[in-house]
Amino acid sequence: MANIDILINARFLTRRATGVDRFAREIISALDEMVGNDDVALQGISIKLIAPGGIAVGAEFTNLPIEYCGKRSGQLWEQIDLPRAMRNADLLVNLCNTAPAFLSNQLVVIHDVATARVPESYGQLFRAWYSLLIPRLYRRAISACTVSEFSRSEMSAIFGHRGDVCVLPEGTDHIDRLIADQTILDRYTLASRPYVLAVSSLSPHKNFSAVVKAVELLGDTGFDVVIAGGQNPQVFSGKSGDLPASVKYVGYVTDEELKALYENAACFVFPSIYEGYGLPPTEAMAAGCPVLAARAASIPEICGDAVLYFDPHDPATLAAALRTIIDDQGLRNLLRIKGRQRAESMRWRDAALLLVNEIKRVTA
Which CATH architecture has domain 4-171+347-363? Predict the structure, then answer.
């Protein structure tokens, strides 16, 4: 059998990790481990990473070689330099939404259609570029993949039906590999009473303002609200910028610190109104943290009955859910058990195997 030469677009390794970058890193980590174990699933397949020239990306993958090409960076590299490197490969695999616009022998993972459904969350130029690029990739790439049945149906509704879209669900076992950094609890005095964890974002569809409004409705709660992330929650609290004293902003945290926050929280709140998948609540479940989540978009598909849902458009329902879960230890324990059970079925190797099968299908 002829060898199948695969290139994986590794442009994402040159930037600070986002949600789609986490997906790409974990899929490639799983493939890297499979190569190291001489996994029979990869028999006849040769995989190489390709990244912009002149940018060192480290050696986090020990079994997959990396090649550098071109003098450009960013989108220009992806649209001009990357296609030229494809001359001796059978398939280019793109894991982070974007890919060369005029290449057909490629696999593209399109995570969501958020720029079409929640355009207010993105800048005008970004929306314009995605409105041209993503539909073209969806229709012309030899393989179009996504991360949930919800996203598959969304793409079908917006771009037109395509019957061969492959779903690659995400994993949670990267949480298992982390060693929790408990020092963050002492640094912010979080061990003295229960706390609720949330991650802030300025993107309107992340709906973080609902968390602030729910906390204001609750008043003196007897528990803290810990806010992680790059955005200070004061921007959501009105003209005064004042937040209740129970709100503690810890800023950007490492993966290890986030795991410690998950493990020790009374619950994790995920208020987003639009997600192609929704990785944070599954991470929380893997860490044994009860989850409150918005009943919206892909979230019920991904989280099932392992979380407590609320209406993301009504902060009062979130406030009521917070009070319920804080007051009911039995409910918290039940959600911990259900969450862990559901998270155990989410493995990055499973997604990598589905990807390998899709590669075999389109290169047959």
Answer: 3-Layer(aba) Sandwich (3.40)
